[in-house]
Amino acid sequence: MRPHDDRDLKGAPPLRRPETSVLVKEALRKDANDVDALFVLAALRAQDGHPDEGLTILDRVLVIDPGYPGAWFFKEKLHRMRGETRQAETAREQGEATEA
Amino acid sequence: MTAAAELVKMKICMAGEAMVGKTSLIRRYVLEEYEDRYTATLGTKITKKSLGVAHPQDGHRVEVNLILWDIMGTPTLRDLLKEAYYHGAHGILGVADLTREETLRELDAWSRSIRTVAGSVPTYMVVNKADLEGEARMDRGTIDAFCRDRGYPWSYTSAKTGAGVEEAFEGLVRHVLSR
Ligand SMILES: Nc1nc2c(ncn2[C@@H]2O[C@H](COP(=O)(O)OP(=O)(O)OP(=O)(O)O)[C@@H](O)[C@H]2O)c(=O)[nH]1
Ligand SMILES: [Mg+2]
Question: Which residues, in sequence order, are CB contacts of B158 under 8 Å at separation 6+?
């Protein structure tokens, strides 16, 4: 992997956004319960073809912060990807209630 | 006696590529602060702000509770997270960076993704970093044509100087109310 923590460059602003997976790793190293990093990690795992792992991580997000913006609707989506209609509906209802 | 203002809750979502200034615009608008240092957004962030406006149709008073959703400008996760970001959105603030031409064109990809979740949501566009005039990579004519084709009202902003920021958010609110 190429090095890309441009944020450490002095002076000029970075030319591109650092790799998201690197940002996630750094944040989790500082705080294993960093809810933003966990949310994004769930997305990255799902993106890499592991929606089951994504869901496990997302459930941790929702334990830490049941009101995490968008997390219930993302959970709905991951359940749908796995064909789990009932769990998807439940997550959706939670999402509607949380964001109302 | 004046009638009580109508209360409206409005979910506004940012859209646009990384580093165009989405977070900076919210920061400037809500906190009147600005940072030159870039901190990439991780996850989703909500900021609230209320404002009073005259309704664009008949001028009655509307008290708007804005819920501003800041997101990561990462196209690779956009489709996976589009429901999380855009479910129930009432308005979109599309952000392009005056100094990077591709950030204007890429707004179409954001818009396509949003439409699959929230339908045709009223969208207002800003061309941010207007303070970097000397490094401009798009001219007014190009932006006008782009926005006319898509029905977006638009304006220049600078989160750095604050120029046009409040006007843009208020322009978006009026655009949403007029639908
Ligand atoms: N000159 C100038 N720089 C700006 C302006 N707005 C933002 N910036 C700078 O541009 C960089 C990116 O700004 P952000 O607000 O973090 O961009 P973003 O769109 O939220 O980026 P992501 O979170 O990665 O999607 C930062 O270094 C800001 O200081 C502006 O109006 N003028
Ligand atoms: Mg940001």
Answer: B128, B129, B130, B131, B164, B165
CA angle A31, A35, A39 (to 5 degrees): 125
Which chain B residues are Cβ-neighbours of A71 within 8 angstroms?
Answer: 84
Which sequence spans correspond to the domains of chain B?
Answer: 6-177
In a domain, A68, yes or no: yes
pTM, two decimal places: 0.94
DSSP-assigned letter for residue B160: T
Which CATH number is A52's domain given?
Answer: 1.25.40.10
The fold for domain B6-177 equals: Rossmann fold (3.40.50)
A chain contacts of residue B43, beta-carbon cutoff 8 Å: 35-37, 39-40, 68
Q: Is any Cβ of chain B less than 8 angstroms from the Cβ of A23?
A: yes
A26 touches chain B (CB under 8 A): no
CA distances from residue B141 to B146, B148, B156, B165 in whole angstroms, order as listed: 9, 10, 13, 21
Q: Which atom of ligand 1 is nearest to the CA of B17?
A: 25
Q: How many domains does chain A have?
A: 1
Q: Chain B residue closest to A6 (CA)?
A: B38
Averaged pLDDT score across all residues of chain B = 97
Instruction: Write out the residue range of the structural domain in which residue A53 sits.
Output: 20-99
Could you read off the pLDDT of A43-67 as tens digits, one per residue?
A: 999 999 999 999 999 999 999 999 9
Asked if residue A40 is part of any domain, the answer here is yes
Interface test with B, best of A73, A81, A89 (most B CBs within 10 A): A73
pLDDT at position A9 is 45
Q: What is the ipTM of this complex?
A: 0.94
